[in-house]
Amino acid sequence: MIKLSLFHKLYLLMAVSGVLLIWAVMIVSDYTETSLSTISVENQESLQEYAMQASHIIKGRDKTISISDWVDKIGKSEDTWLAVIKSEFTWLAGSYDAIVLYGEMDITTGRDIKYPIHLYYSRNPVMKLKIPDTEYNLLIQLPQSMRPGAYWKYLDYLIKIGLPIILVTLLSFLIYRNIILPLKSLERATHSISDGDFNIQLANDFVNRKDDMGELARSFSVMAKKINLLVERQRQLIQDISHELRTPITRIKLMLNSNSSNHSIDRV
Question: Which CATH number covers residue 66?
Answer without folding.
Answer: 3.30.450.170
